[in-house]
Write a structure and sequence with these properties.
Blueprint: E1 2-6, H1 14-23, E2 28-34, E3 53-55, E4 61-63, H2 67-78, E5 85-92, H3 99-102, H4 104-114, E6 119-124, H5 132-148, E7 156-161, E8 171-174, E9 179-180, E10 187-190, E11 196-199, E12 206-208, H6 214-219, E13 222-228, H7 238-245
């Protein structure tokens, strides 16, 4: 099995190293990740300048672009074979609910999915995370399941792992995305040169976090596994919009 790894925290991130180490016994691993932290880059592609591919002493490749750039470049221009899987992570912090819209971690996996490859985004649900080995082991088990029983169609899974020891996990459960309250306002401040600058505010707290959501699962010690899709069509509103246009 050949697996392409990427992330949005950068090629030097501890979660990426832990993931590569855990999967090395199971597959042929290639790592192509951003040269710096690109958290929040979402599904952006770099179209206004060329990209450069370099290799670090670790053997990991890195690109001066976004997570989506990394996967797109690797699959369509660098590799001489199509990966069997694309895995993005292990992200330092959760990607649940509305986070998936902004997440570079999810975006890297999404690019693999859009290219027809089964893909997984994995995050450790704590910004001060330390149990990367737990998340890596979860992903290794998912990979082994896929090796034993390959999916019949490309799938995109968003996986969030509680930041705790393997023995303290409650199990794995399939969830839907929850929803956050709106984000906090931007923070206006002044830099040392006296210029006014703005910091994007923190994400909102969980709003829809009931049973069955990714928030609820992680809060209760479960690994949350959410199948995602890319069709953003709101089918339930098509009739009402059509009627509105005919007024």
């Amino acid at each position: 099995m050949r697996i392409l790894l990427s992330n949005d925290d950068g090629y030097f991130a501890p979660g990426l190293a832990a993931l590569a180490q855990a999967l090395a016994p199971l597959a042929d691993i290639t790592v192509v990740a951003p040269e710096r932290d690109r958290s929040g880059a979402s599904n952006s592609l770099t179209l206004d300048r060329p990209l450069m591919l370099r290799q670090a002493p670790s053997g990991f490749y890195y690109v001066n672009g976004t997570p989506t750039d990394c996967v797109h470049l690797a699959v369509t221009g660098m590799l001489d074979h199509m990966p069997d899987m694309v895995i993005s992570g292990i992200n330092h912090g959760a990607n649940m609910g509305d986070d998936t819209i902004y997440s570079g971690t999810v975006a890297a996996a999404t690019e693999g999915y859009l290219l027809g490859i089964p893909s997984i985004a994995v995050s450790l649900a704590n910004h001060n995370a330390k149990y990367f080995d737990t998340a890596a082991r979860v992903v290794a088990e998912l990979v082994q399941r896929i090796q034993t029983q390959p999916p019949t169609e490309p799938m995109l899974l968003n996986v969030n792992v509680p930041d705790r020891a393997w023995t303290d996990l409650a199990g794995l459960t399939v969830t839907r995305l929850g929803k956050r309250h709106k984000a906090e306002s931007v923070v206006k401040t002044t830099n040392p040169r006296g210029q006014v600058v703005y910091w994007v505010g923190a994400a909102g707290l969980a709003q829809d976090a009931g049973e069955g959501t990714d928030f609820h699962a992680v809060d209760n010690g479960y690994v949350s596994i959410t199948p995602l899709q890319m069709d953003l069509t709101r089918f339930s509103q098509m009739d009402s919009v059509n009627a509105w246009l005919k007024l």
